[in-house]
Amino acid sequence: MSRFLAVLRSWLVMVAIIAAGNTLQSFWDHSFLSDKLYTGKPGQVNGLQARTFGIWTLLASVIRCACAIDIRNKTLYHITLWTFIMALAHFLSEVWVYHTAQLTIGVMAPLTVASK
């Protein structure tokens, strides 16, 4: 395996683990989302929205982990790439269209990861 693929696999696993942690946090305390991500309109964050965000993040985590395991599977690789594109589109739209998020460190971190 090339060095690039080895680094990519490690990065995907790291991102998947962080996403799984965000999932647990979303289920544990939904104020996590209003405090860190959706600071523009924190009153719109509720438990249902936090759980939906958590499941969406868990799905992305599982896909990314599966890709890290089978990095040469082109279909899985493309699906994984789309998880990053969708996350980027989501966070950009929350900042620029819906104004529910502001460019804080809580939003800049996922934007940076999604744009890599």
Write the layout of secondary structure elements.
Elements: H1 3-28, H2 31-36, H3 47-69, H4 74-96, H5 105-114
Helix pairs in contact: 1-3, 3-4, 4-5
What does this protein look like?
- There is one protein chain.
- With 116 residues, this protein is an all-alpha fold.
- It contains five helices and no strands.
- The radius of gyration is 15 Å and the shape is elongated.
* Count, helices: 5
* Fraction of residues in β-strands: under 5%
* Main sheet makeup: none
* Oligomeric state of the chains in view: single chain
Give the SSE string. Answer: HHHHH
Shape: elongated
Mean pLDDT: 92
* Contiguous uncertain segments of 5+ residues: none
SS elements, strand count: 0
List its salient traits.
116 residues, 0% strand, elongated
Briefly characterize the structure.
With 116 residues, the chain is mostly helical. The protein is 76% helix and 0% strand.
